[in-house]
């Protein structure tokens, strides 16, 4: 699974005795986008604030890509390039990325 979320720091119980959900991920991470690579599909929980470079690095590692991650890019199903400026919108709309 591709995961570019950052750990949360606050793990203290909330008033009323309940403990907040702690997945070790940023609460801004939105499940789930689908990432495809050479015919394989992996569900991804991507932090919309994450660096696109880090997302691609984790994606390459998750797929076991033979190419170095710096030579890869993310695109949407319409072949539009996913950039740092549009990654949050793509994640929020749960687009399939490749």
Q: What topology does this entry show?
A:
Elements: E1 2-3, E2 30-37, E3 40-46, H1 52-63, H2 87-92
Parallel strand pairs: 1-3
Antiparallel strand pairs: 2-3
Organism: Vanrija albida
Region (Disordered): 1-30
Biased composition (Polar residues): 19-30
Can you offer a commentary on this structure?
This protein has two helices and three strands. The relative contact order is 0.22. It has one domain (2-92). 18% of the residues lie in helices and 17% in strands. It has 98 residues and is α+β, with helices and mostly antiparallel strands. It is globular, with a radius of gyration of 15 Å. Mean pLDDT is 78; it is low at 5-24.
Short characterization:
The chain is α+β, with helices and mostly antiparallel strands and 98 residues long. Helices cover 18% and strands 17% of the residues. The longest helix is centred in the middle third of the chain and has 12 residues.
Structural class: alpha+beta
| Percentage of residues in helical conformation | 10-25%
Number of helices: 2
Arrangement of strands in the largest sheet: 1-3-2
Secondary-structure element order, N to C: EEEHH
**Secondary structure: number of strands:** 3
The number of domains: 1
Biased composition (Polar residues): 19-30
Region (Disordered): 1-30
Protein name: PB1 domain-containing protein
